[in-house]
Amino acid sequence: MEQQSVPHLLLLPFPAQGHISPMLKLAELLYQAGFHITFLNTPHNHDRHLRFTDLQSRFTSSPRFRFQTIPDGLPPDHPRSVQLIRDIFFSTQLVTKPLLRDLLLSFPQDLPVTGIIADGIMTFAIDVAQDLGIPIFIFRTCSACAFWAYRCIPKLIEAGDLPFEDHDDMDRPINSVPGMETLLRRRDLPSICRLKDLENPVLQFFVNETFNIARASGLILNTFDDLEAPILSHIGPHFPQLYTIGPIHTLLKTRQGDTPPSVASNGSLWEEDGNCMAWLESKPLKSVLYVSFGSIVSVTRDELLEFWYGLVNSGKPFLWVIRQDLIAGKEGKEGEIPAELEGGTKERGCVVGWAPQEEVLAHPAVGGFLTHSGWNSTLESIIAGVPMICWPQLADQQINSRFVSEVWRNGIDMKDRCDRVTVEKMVRDLMVDQREELEKAADKMADLARKCVREGGSSCCNFERLIEDIRSMMS
Ligand code: UDP
Predict the structure, then answer these.
(1) How far apart are CA 8 and CA 91, in angstroms?
(2) Closest residue (by CA) to atom 2 of ligand 1?
(3) Which domain of life, per UniProt (predicted)?
């Protein structure tokens, strides 16, 4: 009698914080559903995880869950910073792709990889998987609205909406993305659209990756139907096996109930400073503005100071994440934290290098979030019912912030502006003048998000369907 293979999934995230965190949560969900998991990190990120989390101890205590490493193809001293993260797009295709094939062939005969879930900008894995006859699903970690905008880049070019240059009549309406006809302006398109040269390799990369996904067995999105249904109805016909299972961090928490996590960690690449939670305890209900620009965005020293003065002048208490690499140009004076911030913010502010963000947003003292509109941060804010001020910088952030301010109406958009007067006004609008209506919209969204992940909710049902489909493809 032929021996049944153990269901063994290999998960391959793109090596950046905003991709690793949701992929780890998906890994934990699948682990709980009974799969063996191999989670592939780059050595660079794995070392950072080990420094700041307890992945290693969890690994040894969970024989069904293993971490392994695969190089991203960049030299160890490469900064992997916002200016240079694009190098990974190309190095992984050249270096990681053949290594992935070797790795898949090296698993023992009693535990071969029987399915793969790869990040939506690592689609070289589809070639490898199909070559070896292994089913593969893609997890695209951005919003559905951003994904659809990437998918429509050829339409944008055809309509003459692209190319344009940054600062080139940025309020001009964009009508060629179906489902968003009266919504978008040039400035709301994903940042790669701010390129004059249509042959630009990064633009080509995003278009190719998005179209490649159709060759996989299914597409997983970290969103929920009640949030993005109109856009999902445009995506569906192109990707019939579509699984919307977000917000994934809440789906995981809901399914776990009171059971302690078996392997999960948020996969932080920085050390969390939990002291800010005690600081929050001392603050009144919904009085604090939480400020964070995620893991990749950098700011100039001047921008940092404009935010600082705007926040201080607003008179509201704030908790600000200033990563050690937040200020662009780490060399010389330019990379130093300005003297005004050095001694802490004294009366009203608390500055940390990296915060336990989900916990912070869930804290009753937090009443607003000044964010770069990264998709994970947006979802974390939605589930916590915290209204946002959006200051998007790159990738999908520009379109996410447009949806926050104009479609979901749970925040306001500060796109392409950064001066102390605007910051101060935005903070007052969010925390005082527009508070009631923004809070109402935020509460409604939070409610819908919670329903989606509960038993019988769309994300919960879609996850069950995903498990069944993966199982049936493996058998
Ligand atoms: N994050 C965190 N602590 C911080 C700042 C960010 O834990 O001080 C987490 C945040 O909760 C989110 C992720 O880092 O899950 C950032 O992802 P996002 O998609 O928002 O932005 P990116 O870093 O990809 O630009």
Answers:
(1) 27
(2) 357
(3) Eukaryota
Its pTM surpasses 0.90: yes
Complex-level ipTM = 1.00
Find out whether 27 and 37 touch, Cβ atoms under 8 Å. yes
| Cα 96 to ligand 1 centroid, rounded to whole Å | 25
pLDDT in tens, 225-243: 999 999 999 999 999 999 9
- DSSP calls for 241-286: SEEE--SHHHHHHHHHTTSPPSS-----SS---THHHHHHHTS-TT
Architecture of the 274-432 domain? 3-Layer(aba) Sandwich (3.40)
The H-assigned helical ranges of 420-474 are 420-428, 435-453, 458-474
103-113 per-position pLDDT tens digit: 999 999 999 99
96 lines ligand 1 (CB under 6 A): no
| Contacts of residue 115, Cβ cutoff 8 Å, sequence gap at least 6 | 7, 8, 9, 10, 134, 135, 136, 137, 470, 473, 474
pLDDT value at position 1? 44
Q: How far is the CA of 69 from the centre of ligand 1 (A)?
A: 22
CATH class label, 8-146+188-264+452-474: alpha beta
